[in-house]
Each structure stands twice: as structure tokens, then as C-alpha cells.
Design the sequence.
DNA sequence: CCTATATACTGAAACGTTACAGATTGTCAC
DNA sequence: GTGACAATCTGTAACGTTTCAGTATATAGG
């Protein structure tokens, strides 16, 4: 009776469970469970036997069962702003994260939030509902309530970009200070003296990194700044284009630009040309880019590469590291810009 | 005694459960469960009372509990090729999907697969492990094993792009036939007679849609085709650029291009210019784009817009519709190109 | 007054997993 | 031969939910 019933139970459900394995091996469910996770109190042979059978029939632990029992979700959440995120950032960072979690049990869920919402909302949701074991956030601010909140709750996370609150947490950042200084030095090297910076939005930490690098290098090389802070890389293409054109029609206009984003650079160049000036002759532009396309746009553009896929991979590694018990302080990384491309004079 | 214990249980765990609600309302767990889902056999007042309390204390059903009991995951999976997917496609489609599932209990998980893998692998994984209630796939083929597989298993899905297997399933597609015909007509309208097509990869369904539109319109307007099928939009920028330059140096060279992707268009233009020819004078290019950037690249470019965010939203709606019991046949949509932008003659 | 029926509610069981607290052996010291 | 102990293994309960099979009460029909 008993056996018949058990058999039927196992046959009926398509997917093997611990019970199936227990039946097949003649062991108890508990033993099977522990054998699969290499618990020491299970005999070596039993362990091998269970693992063999499990592999043979393609056993995979039921995520809901594990999650209900242990609270472990095996989920990493990537939190994204649906309006302001850089396009290539989204795909590259996702692929970077994917690459790292590919041979782990982790799934990647994307948690979006929009302009209208408090950026803390999605984080609160994730933490309150226990929807993820780890979180990755971008658009990091010097005093970031999201980081503070997660630190308080003890949920592992990593930020793309640094904070400046005296709190330690994993991050990955691109060295925007180095980017800006190299950009300025390069422009000075080809004779540019009046430089404008299209900066990141003020509220984000890398705004000041970029700005500091820019102004430090400016005084180092003895060049001057033409203020261009009515727009940031967050503004629309049209806005940036218009403002650039306005700026370039002024008496004292820049002869060099440093741009923190590739799409914005397209707008800057358009604005320059709207004003009847020529890139490479009247003005030079150094831009960050994440895909290798800007040099097709105008060969005179000077580019510095930022690798978002790498960022995604690093962020994922950090979060997994923290979940795995590593100390947050050891999970910080900074990636250096790969140098300004050599200037090619116009034909 | 009993009460003390119950109270303690509820106090201890931070998050309210049905048990918490049951205790607070003085009802049974079953009643609470049913009251929350508006079951008819619960008294109207009780129902309101339970729902009020639930809202007040911020009750949210435990996903693992629901999933374990019912098998419902409340997850939609977006399956992406980590090498070949168009960059803007990834971010836009994610945002489109997000937009639709925002006020549902659904989460979006991204399931990646790489070049080396069988595209069926991630699908098998999802289905076998029951990881999602619905799936969205892209890079759809005329005879698509993934669609067939999911249809057999009865798991709701939607494809970006159509299949051609005589099987009915939800899809969203851009009308690439219309795109190609309009592109050709426009080029013919401005006097171009020898046209080349940079097509999608042959294995994907929209290759033939595009090609058919191209050739049909070609004979309609009496223009001729210059074969350009050694490359597709899947090839690298460098490859496309090189092939284009080769083509443009030949005696019989195209005076018009139709390009199925924006990034590829950059390469085509670069190739044209490598050959010493000028866009708008020697040759015109019509291109699809998904973000509004190509006109900044070269103002002579003729562009047609494909809205991936809309595609994401439509795909999500389709999958949710299918899950909700709608008939697959009713969940198909085709989006028309928004017209070729007016040609602006060079200054 | 009793029975049938509808209404409103409830406890127990189950989904698959892990943790806790044993239970069953065999080995060894004395 | 007995007790102690280690080595292996096992049953039960619990995580939060829904479903099944009820139970209790009120209402109506006869």
C-alpha cells in the first residue's frame, strides 16, 4: 500500500523532488538533502550515490521550496531608472551581470522605477518583500539614501559609482577624475586653451569627480574654463544641441569640449556645426563612449572608453561576494580609462 | 497560553502573513485568504474588514508561498542573446515590458544565452524548472524550435517577430516589408536607380520580409538591385564598413542603400566615405533607427523609426493576455513604420 | 418541530525544502 | 558484557499559501 502510493506520487509529478530521489535511493528525504550539499555526517559512498542519481535524473532544487524554507531567493536585482539610464549602459551592464551569474543558481531581475517615483521606492519594495538576496543600483549620489537604507537593513548591494557618506560598501566606478584630467591634458596638448565641460547631473557623485578632474587639470595646464553648466548629460539631445550652439556663437567661446556621454557628444557636435564652426579646426571634443561608434560619427572626435559590461560583471561579483560573506570593504573597484585615442588631423 | 504563543509568533516575524491577518481580524487563515481574493462565499463586511486591515498593515502575499502551493511564479522572462541583440533594443524592450507589468504582481527576469549555446537551452531551462509564467523571445525564425517547444508544453509566450510554421502564437512585429518598400520608393523618388540592401541575418524571419519588400518595390519602381549579401546587420561594424567600401569602389556601384539597423548605417556611411564618395550626392541611405540619433550623424540620412519600447509593451501585454486566458490568435500585432523623414538637400 | 438548504466560516493537508531532535548501528575501552 | 561515543541515517515540523472537505448557524419549507 505504502509503496504503491509513494510510487504513484513520484510518477505523477513531472519533476523530480527530494522525495523522488529518496524513493529511488531508498534513503530518507533528509539524508538526500544533506548528501546533495556535501554535509559531513553523510557517508562518502551514500553521498556519491545520491549525487549520481540526482545528476542522472536531472534533479534541480525547487526554488520556491528553498525560498520559503530558508528565505534565500537566489535573485539579484538590478534597479534601473527607466527614463535617465544611458541606453548602452542597460544592455551592457545586464550582460556583464549575466556573465557572472551564469554558472550560479542566481536569476537576474530588473526592477525599474520612473521619474515620478522616489528612487528609494523600488529599494524599499525589494527589502520589505525580501525579493532579492542582493541589489545593484546605479546613479549613485554622494549622500545616497538607498545605500544608507540597505546598509541599515543589512542587505548586500553594490553601487555603480561611489558614495561619500563615510560608509563602506561595495562599488564599482569608472575613474572619471582621471578621464577628465586626461581629456583636458590632451586638449591642451593640441593647443586648446578655453575648455567647456558637459558634466554629469550635479546630484550624482561622478559629477564632482569629473568636475574636479577637469578643474585640477585646467590649472595644471594653465587653460581656462568656459562655463557650460546649464545642461548636463541628462538633458535632451535637443537641449544640449541648442545650448551648445548658443555657446559657440558667443564672443568668448570654447575651443575644446569634454563630454561625459556619447549621445550628448552627438548633440554637442551638432550644436557646433549649427553655429557654423568646424570640429577639429575651430574646436576639439573629447568624449567618453561605451561602444566603439563615435569615431564613425566624426573621425576628429577624441574618445575614451568606459566598459559597462565590465562594470556589470564587477558589480555582480561584488554582490555575490558580499552574499558569500566577504567583507564589503574588500569589494570595491575602480576602472581606469583606456587612453585618449590619437588625434587624427583632418585630411 | 495559546494566545501568548500566537502573538509572539506574529510579533517575531517582521512581515505580516495570512496568520497575522487572521489573528488581527479574529478569523481563520482560510477565510482571510479567500476574503483577500474576493471569493463569493465570504460575507461582504468581513471581506471589507479583512481588506482594510491588510491594506493598513501593508500585507503582501509571500511569493514563495504562492509559488510553492500553486506553481504560479508571477514572473515573465525575457530571453536575450548576449552577443547579437541590438543595444537599444535591450533597454527599450525592457522598459516597455516594465511599463506594462508595473502595476501587476509580475517580476521581469532576464534570461541570457550566448553564441555558443543552443537558443533552445534557456527555454528548456525555463520550462523544465517552471521558472516563469510567460516568456518573451526575440530573433525569431521562420521555423522556430523555441516557439514550437513552448507551444507543445503549453507555456504562454510571445515572439518579437513572426514565425512561419503554420502555428498560431502571440507576436509583435515591425512591418519590415512596409519599411523596405517605402525606403525603396523614397530612394526612387529622389532619382536613385541602383539600390543595395543591408539585410537582417538570413535565419531570422524578418530577413525575408525585408527582402521581399525590397525586391517588390524595386520592380514596382523599375530600379535594380546591387547585391550586397555578403554581410548582414549581425556583422561587425568593421566588416560592414569594409564591404561597403569595396562595393562602392566597383564600376557598377549602388546609388542608394537600405539599411536595417542604425549601427550598421554608421558603418555603411563610413564605408561610402572611405571610397571617397559623398552621402547625399553620390548615394543616399535610408535606415531604420530606434532612437532619434541618426540625423545628428549625417543630416542627409533618411530614417524610419522603429519603436522598441512599444514592442516591449505589446509583447508583455500579449504574454499577460495569454496567461489571463485570452486566445493566442487575438494577441498578435504589427506596427507600421512611421514615415521616411523628408530629405533635406545638402547646403 | 424537524429537515433541507444556503451562508459564512474553519481546520487539515499539501506544495518542496531544511533544521531540529532524535534513532539505530557499530566500535572501543574497561 | 556494559557504557560511552562516533558515525550514519531518519521523522517531524515549519516556512506561507491555497484547496478540500468539512462545521456551525440561520433561514425557509413542510
Sequence:
Amino acid at each position: 500500500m505504502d509503496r504503491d502510493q509513494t510510487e504513484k506520487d513520484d510518477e505523477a509529478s513531472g519533476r523530480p523532488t527530494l522525495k523522488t530521489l529518496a524513493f529511488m535511493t531508498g534513503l530518507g528525504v533528509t539524508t538526500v538533502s544533506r548528501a546533495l550539499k556535501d554535509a559531513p555526517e553523510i557517508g562518502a559512498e551514500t553521498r556519491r550515490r545520491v549525487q549520481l542519481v540526482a545528476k542522472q535524473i536531472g534533479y534541480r532544487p525547487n526554488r520556491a521550496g528553498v525560498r520559503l524554507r530558508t528565505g534565500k531567493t537566489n535573485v539579484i536585482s538590478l534597479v534601473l531608472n527607466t527614463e535617465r539610464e544611458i541606453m548602452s549602459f542597460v544592455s551592457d551592464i545586464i550582460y556583464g551581470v549575466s556573465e557572472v551569474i551564469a554558472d550560479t543558481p542566481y536569476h537576474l531581475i530588473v526592477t525599474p522605477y520612473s521619474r515620478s517615483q522616489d528612487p528609494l521606492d523600488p529599494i524599499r519594495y525589494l527589502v520589505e518583500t525580501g525579493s532579492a538576496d542582493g541589489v545593484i543600483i546605479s546613479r549613485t549620489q554622494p549622500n545616497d539614501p538607498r545605500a544608507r537604507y540597505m546598509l541599515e537593513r543589512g542587505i548586500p548591494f553594490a553601487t555603480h559609482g561611489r558614495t561619500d557618506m563615510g560608509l563602506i560598501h561595495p562599488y564599482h566606478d569608472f575613474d572619471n577624475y582621471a578621464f577628465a584630467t586626461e581629456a583636458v591634458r590632451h586638449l591642451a596638448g593640441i593647443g586648446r586653451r578655453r575648455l567647456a565641460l558637459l558634466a554629469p547631473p550635479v546630484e550624482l557623485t561622478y559629477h564632482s569627480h569629473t568636475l574636479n578632474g577637469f578643474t585640477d587639470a585646467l590649472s595644471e595646464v594653465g587653460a581656462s574654463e568656459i562655463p557650460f553648466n546649464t545642461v548636463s548629460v541628462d538633458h535632451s539631445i535637443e537641449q544640449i544641441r541648442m545650448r551648445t550652439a548658443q555657446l559657440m556663437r558667443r564672443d568668448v567661446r570654447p575651443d575644446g569640449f569634454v563630454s561625459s556621454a556619447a549621445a550628448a557628444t552627438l548633440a554637442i557636435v551638432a550644436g557646433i556645426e549649427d553655429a557654423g564652426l568646424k570640429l577639429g579646426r575651430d574646436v576639439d571634443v573629447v568624449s567618453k563612449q561605451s561602444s566603439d561608434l563615435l569615431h564613425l560619427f566624426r573621425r576628429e572626435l577624441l574618445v575614451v572608453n568606459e566598459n559597462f559590461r565590465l562594470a556589470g560583471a564587477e558589480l555582480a561579483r561584488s554582490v555575490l561576494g558580499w552574499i558569500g560573506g566577504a567583507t564589503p570593504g574588500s569589494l570595491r573597484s575602480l576602472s581606469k580609462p583606456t587612453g585618449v585615442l590619437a588625434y587624427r588631423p583632418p585630411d
Remarks:
- The longest helix of chain A spans residues 205-221.
- DSSP finds 14 helices and eleven strands in chain A.
- Residues 27-31, 34, 41-43, 46, 65, 67-71 of chain A lie near DNA strand D (CB under 10 Å from a C1').
